[in-house]
Amino acid sequence: MVKAQRLHNGIGQYIFLIALLALLLFMLSPFAIVILNAFKTPIEYANNGPMSLPSGFYLQGIIDFWNRVDFTNKLINSTVISLSVAVFGVLLSLLNAFALGVGKVKGRVVFLIFFMIANTLPHESLAYPLYYFAKFAKIYDSQISIILIFTVIQSAFGTYLLSSVFSSFPREMIEAATVDGCNKFQLLTRIVAPISLPSLSVLFTFFFIWTWNEFFLPLIMLVSNAKQTVPLAIAILQGQHNMDATTTSASALLGILPCIVFFFLFQRTLTKGIMAGSLK
Questions:
Q1: Which of 83, 33, 37 is nearest to 258 (CA)?
Q2: Residue 224 DSSP SS3
Q3: CA dihedral of 196, 199, 204, 205, whole degrees rounded to 10
Q4: At 196, is the secondary structure helix, strand, or coil?
Q5: How many Å apart are CA 238 and CA 108, to the nearest integer?
Q6: 89 and 194 share a domain?
């Protein structure tokens, strides 16, 4: 009876593993098709279709796209904006959550509801007031406007997440630090922030990737070609020029490759942060 139960459990685990592998292949198939077509010649694509293997590494499509959009400039713009939003967004989330989760300010529930509602607002509803705010503040068509906007937007989610983590912070540790003479700033920088570093690293990674992929608000706020980001460059070029399928695949590959590289660089940090959150 026990052996039969073990055999049944083993078969179930193998079936579950095979199903996960099939789902993984299905999710990665669009990316694989993009890679295949990015290194084909237009003639190969026309004759053999999108699913065929390239006969060699045709790099002219990547070079043409790089030169057309000045991809180096767009890469720098996206990196500066995304890194700035990730750093400032995490810092603002930490300060807000410390006040709500550890400081126990009055009206904490109201603030949490406000941040939760802010997370659900579509960007289309924010476009009109943000446009006129940027015009009024004279930061329209500047990277500063995008950094400020997405720092606030991302920190709404970060504040809501961290405040729930900080609310379960051991009160005995806080009280002991207070008795030992720690002020609020020392409590934040020497105790709360170091212990919460895994959660902060998760937010940093998510904020970077989310900001990198943003399209709608940067499309409205950044009109100068020299200040635009990678997603804008891809979309605008495809609208202005008739690109062949291989050049389009090359643009898609260059657009998502930096995010993939960033994700793999911080993969271990991200895994540790998620595991630490689950253990808490």
A1: 83
A2: coil
A3: 150
A4: coil
A5: 47
A6: yes
Give the span between the Cα atoms of 269 and 271, in whole angstroms: 5
How far is Cα 176 from Cα 182, in angstroms, rounded to an integer?
9
Backbone φ, ψ for residue 262 (5° rounding): -60, -40
Sign, CA torsion 269/275/278/280 = negative
CA angle in degrees (0–180, nearest 5) for 133-145-198: 125
Q: Are 225 and 33 in contact (CB under 8 A)?
A: no
Which backbone phi and psi does 34 adopt, to 5 degrees?
A: -60, -45
| Pair (114, 64) in one structural domain | no
Residue pair 245/50 in contact by the 8 Å Cβ criterion: yes
The amino acid sitting at 190 is R
Model-level pTM greater than 0.90? no
Structural domains of the chain, count? 2
Residue 6 has pLDDT above 80, yes or no: no
CATH of the domain at 115: 1.10.3720.10
Q: In what helix (H) or strand (E) does residue 248 lie, and over which residues does it extend?
A: helix 245-265
Range of the domain at 192: 81-209
The per-residue pLDDT for range 87-120, each reduced to its tens digit, is 999 999 999 998 887 766 777 778 888 888 888 8
